[in-house]
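Field reference: sequence -> structure
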Amino acid sequence: MKFRILEILGLVLILISYAFPFWSTYLSSPIFGYTRQVYIKVMLAGYVDYTPPDALMQLNIAHHYVGLPPLEPEKMIELKLIPLLPAGLAAVYILHMLGKLRLRWLVIITYTALLGGVAYFQWWLYNLGHSIHPGAPIKVEPFTPIVMGSYEIANFRAFNILDVGFWLLAISPVLAYLGKKFKI
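Structure field:
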């Protein structure tokens, strides 16, 4: 069986996606200091990366004042499951490369998994923004953070993106298609 260079590159992109964030949020607020931002990145390797190192603590303090539940990554099942996304897509990709799975199914499975992950994450963000404790010191109406884009809640500004890890996974079926179409 002959593998095409672009197909191999697509598999490599899936595997290196573990080193990159799937989703990132950039937060700024006077509570963090006027010249400082907080970056939170959900990594495909199953952990959350924070900049600065006390970002989670600062965010949880802000959550306390507006009545949101604290973020506790060690208790989040999602972080234990997210490494399965690239692993599963790599397995599907290898089946395609071995001729056991048609390109059409590779594309359907990949984009269904990615869009399903984004939809689930949006649902999780909705639940977070609608879990406000009524006795909080600062009154904030329930809100829905968005997966992609910017928004403002009280004196917090957020900019959220689907990050490099997501796009590496999304590009892999395109490379398989181009490899097949142009025999590269």
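Note: The chain has a mean pLDDT of 92.
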